[in-house]
């Protein structure tokens, strides 16, 4: 099952519909379950946090479970169907909004409203990524958005001394750096991470009301046609459209690709594999127009939680200065809590200036985030759109035909919604 696939079985839908009848059952011990997304390498730290939480709350228990990305949605779906969902969940990207739209998550709006200090500690543009129908469904856990990494060595060899400022410059610079084993550009493609390439050309996926297709326009066709031609001639590495995480990041880490559009965690992956990476050889910049797609993790509460107040207490504990600060410092990760994140960047300015420069892009131009439409059917829209886009990018269809076919498929999903 794809990690973005959500609640597709009839059994799961029936279970979600039945949730209100058992939301506030307060029987049994004061126990909650905390489900994380592929954080098993943090076991000692997480168990330490749990010990600190329960020690000051007699009679409270916290069970921790961790699931890998491909396993987590299927596990959560099963638990929803059984009426025993984890109380506190760590979810990536737009999947949280899908769960909210299906009735699986607790509305956190009243809790945020009752604690303005807690709400205001977050970078508000990231907090807004989990707003659906005017309600807050999740709190930021760790945050990221896309940026443009550029290989300064290949740029210098091509007679270039700055990152591109427009879409056409991305393509032109890519062609100047392409020869033999070298290509000019890579992008990650999952979770709409490629969307800045369209947004910087004024192409949006949907109408402002999100009830009509907006991408099937002359400008959309032109952008897709240019991307397909650049892929065909090798300026854009084909792994952009066939790989997910390891493949494009690994390809950029070889030092044979000029640019990579990815979110900030890619830096640590690239640095671990690329001995060439240092401040003289790698640059971090905003994409043209400062457009970026967020790909953050949030913390939410299952609507079926039998201990919603305790679950909220645990979320606030995880976002406390001590716990979130330890998380940030040990993982060199941004939490969405502005004071903690600025402290991390100040520390990295001294210890690893290039990492600080990468992370600083995540707090710049947060008003220019795209590809983060508040959709309760995000994965179905993506599954309708992406295969047709890929058909054009890999030369299986021309751009006009591919977008027309995508138009029909996406319009059908909008009608179903």
Given helix and strand content, the structural type is alpha/beta
Assembly status: single chain
**What are the segments in which pLDDT stays under 50 over at least 5 consecutive residues?**
1-27
Major sheet attributes: 5 strands, mixed
Determine the number of helices (DSSP H or I, runs of at least 4 residues). 20
CATH architecture of the largest domain: 3-Layer(aba) Sandwich
The share of residues in extended strands comes to: 5-15%
The rounded distance between the terminal residues' Cα atoms is 22 Å
CATH third-level topology of the largest domain: D-Maltodextrin-Binding Protein, domain 2
How would you explain this protein's 3D organization?
The chain is α/β, with parallel strands linked by helices and 417 residues long. The chain folds into two domains: 206 residues, Periplasmic binding protein-like II (D-Maltodextrin-Binding Protein, domain 2), CATH 3.40.190.10; 188 residues, D-Maltodextrin-Binding Protein, domain 2 (3-Layer(aba) Sandwich), CATH 3.40.190.10. The chain has 20 helices and eleven strands. A five-stranded mixed beta sheet has the order 2-1-3-11-6. It has a four-stranded mixed beta sheet with strand order 8-9-7-10, sandwiched between helices. The longest helix is centred in the C-terminal third of the chain and has 18 residues. The N terminus is likely disordered.
């Amino acid at each position: 099952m794809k990690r973005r696939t959500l609640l597709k079985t009839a059994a799961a839908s029936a279970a979600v519909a039945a949730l209100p009848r058992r939301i506030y059952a307060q029987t049994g011990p004061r126990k909650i379950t905390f489900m994380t997304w592929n954080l098993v390498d943090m076991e000692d730290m997480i168990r330490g946090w749990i010990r600190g939480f329960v020690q000051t709350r007699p009679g409270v228990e916290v069970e921790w479970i961790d699931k890998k990305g491909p396993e987590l949605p299927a596990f959560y779906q099963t638990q929803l169907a059984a009426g025993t969902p984890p109380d506190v969940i760590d979810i990536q990207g737009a999947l949280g909004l899908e769960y909210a739209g299906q009735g699986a998550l607790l509305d956190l709006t009243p809790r945020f409203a009752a604690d303005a200090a807690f709400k205001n500690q977050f970078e508000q543009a990231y907090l807004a990524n989990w707003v659906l129908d005017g309600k807050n469904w999740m709190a930021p856990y760790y945050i990221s958005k896309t940026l443009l990494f550029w290989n300064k060595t290949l740029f210098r060899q091509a007679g270039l001394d700055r990152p591109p400022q427009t879409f056409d410059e991305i393509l032109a610079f890519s062609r100047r750096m392409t020869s033999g084993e070298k290509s000019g550009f890579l992008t990650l493609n999952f979770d709409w991470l490629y969307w800045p390439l369209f947004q910087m050309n004024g192409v949006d996926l949907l109408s402002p009301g999100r009830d009509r297709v907006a991408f099937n326009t002359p400008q959309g066709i032109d952008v897709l046609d240019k991307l397909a031609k650049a892929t065909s001639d090798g300026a854009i590495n084909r792994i952009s459209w066939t790989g997910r995480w390891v493949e494009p990041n690994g390809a950029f880490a070889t030092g044979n690709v000029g640019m990579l559009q990815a979110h900030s965690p890619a830096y640590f992956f690239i640095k671990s594999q690329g001995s060439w990476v240092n401040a003289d050889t790698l640059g971090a910049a905003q994409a043209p127009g400062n457009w970026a797609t967020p790909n953050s993790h949030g913390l939410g509460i299952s609507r079926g939680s039998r201990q919603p107040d305790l679950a909220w207490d645990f979320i606030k504990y995880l976002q406390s200065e001590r716990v979130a600060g330890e998380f940030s410092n040990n993982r060199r990760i941004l939490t969405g809590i502005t004071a903690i994140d600025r402290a991390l960047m100040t520390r990295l300015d001294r210890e690893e200036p290039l990492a600080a420069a990468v992370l600083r892009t995540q707090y710049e131009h947060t008003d220019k985030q795209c590809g983060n439409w508040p959709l309760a059917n995000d994965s179905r829209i993506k599954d309708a759109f992406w295969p047709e886009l890929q058909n054009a990018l890999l030369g299986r269809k021309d751009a006009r035909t591919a977008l027309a076919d995508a138009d029909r498929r996406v319009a059908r999903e909008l009608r179903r919604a």
